[in-house]
Amino acid sequence: MLNIALFGPPGAGKGTQSESLIAKYGLLYISTGDILRKEIASGSELGKKINAITSEGHLVSDELIMSIIRKTIETNPHVEGILFDGFPRNISQAKLLENLMEELGTPFTGVLSLEVPREELITRLINRGKVSGRSDDKEDVILERLKEYEEKTLPVAEYFSKKGNFYPVKGVGSLEEIFDRLVAEIEKHRR
Ligand code: ADP
Fold first, then answer.
1. Could you identify which of 19, 33, 66, 121 might form a hypothetical disulfide with 11, taking C-beta atoms 3.0 to 4.6 angstroms apart as the criterion?
2. Which of 31, 50, 60 for a ligand 1 pocket mutation test, highest count of atoms within 8 Å of Cβ?
3. For 78, which DSSP code?
């Protein structure tokens, strides 16, 4: 089993690289951001509540995140492993992830981190905003998301570094180059 979390700031390229990784390794893809956006698009009451939070660039509750993750795993029981994108996003979620892996009786391979300079992230997100139609890809919200990332999500890097399963990868270059770097890391650490 290969269970990995793809880590990195907004705009690091997690969604793009995830597509190639799940194709190569046959993993169940759990993007918390994608699932939340689907809920918003459904127009449900829950979706409206989520939208009020995400369009400000803030994080939704850990309870909601865990419930969508559990639901996704329950509906996809036979998989080669899981790729988490956008999770864990704070220390509490990091611990919840470890508990979940233990409960499922499957090893956690580690965190692959896409490292991209801040200036490059802002440029990428502003450009994406022109085509994505995402309500959070606007400059003021982008800056708020980066602030949330720096305050709440970056400590997750330190948490897993101390445990020895945090693997940084240079996230600048061609898509193929970055993909090859990710695969090389996975092959080094998979059990
Ligand atoms: P990005 O990495 O580009 O910011 P995502 O698609 O991963 O975007 O997430 C979009 C938004 O969804 C986040 O800004 C946040 O509001 C919410 N979100 C996604 N994943 C989580 C999570 N694990 N915990 C809390 N909020 C989340």
1. 121
2. 60
3. S
Q: How far apart are CA 132 and CA 79, in angstroms?
A: 30
**pLDDT tens per residue, range 128-187:** 999 988 889 999 999 999 999 999 999 999 999 999 999 999 999 999 999 999 999 999
Answering whether pTM is above 0.90, one says: yes
Count the domains in the chain: 1
142 C-beta closer than 6 A to ligand 1: no
Q: What is the CATH number of the domain that holds 89?
A: 3.40.50.300
For the sheet containing 166-170, what is the strand order? 28-31, 81-85, 2-7, 110-115, 166-170
Domain extent for 147: 2-189
Taking the CA atoms of residue 141, residue 95, residue 48 and residue 42 in that order, the dihedral angle to the nearest 10 degrees is 110
How far apart, in whole angstroms, are the C-alpha atoms of residue 116 and residue 23?
24
